[in-house]
């Protein structure tokens, strides 16, 4: 398979340099919000030409989504404890690991998440769809093991509930959702809704 000109250009940038670009994006996002973030500002902070950024990421939404994805620690795709209860608790711990940083960054995206279709698409591809696929895999394994029925009505709400409580606790209580809080939420709300005894 031959390399395209784009992939050849990309190979010249080290992972460390890419991380510098991402750090510049996240700093700008935290400081000024999404609307004020510009490719020019990121380039200036990362000491590179704007064209370098556009060669790697075709647009601001793609660069922001890539930076947010790289900022995540842990992945739900790796979770497989042998039980649905164990999987959901581990998913809660992983989600809690970056809840403060992720929540602040999500809040920095502000109105743009709802109004910018290109940003929505980039975030769905980079962040949302992999998590939904991981939840689907957890449920499929649970169904195969006979833990829950294939058409259990609570299943479709699992991602919204776990991710939703992660985002809303700072608004309701002024505190981020840590691992203890999220695991207790899994045991008190999610598992009973699935008919699973914690």
UniProtKB/TrEMBL annotation:
Keyword RNA-binding appears in the UniProt entry: no
Q: Does the keyword Transcription regulation apply?
A: yes
Pfam families, per the entry: TetR_C_11, TetR_N
The UniProt annotation gives the DNA-binding region as 38-57
* Top-level taxon: Bacteria
Q: Which PROSITE patterns match?
A: HTH_TETR_2
Q: Which UniProt keywords apply?
A: DNA-binding, Transcription, Transcription regulation
Where the record annotates domain HTH tetR-type, the positions are: 15-75
Q: What is this protein called?
A: TetR/AcrR family transcriptional regulator
Native species of this protein?
A: Streptomyces goshikiensis
Q: Which taxonomic lineage is given here?
A: Bacteria, Bacillati, Actinomycetota, Actinomycetes, Kitasatosporales
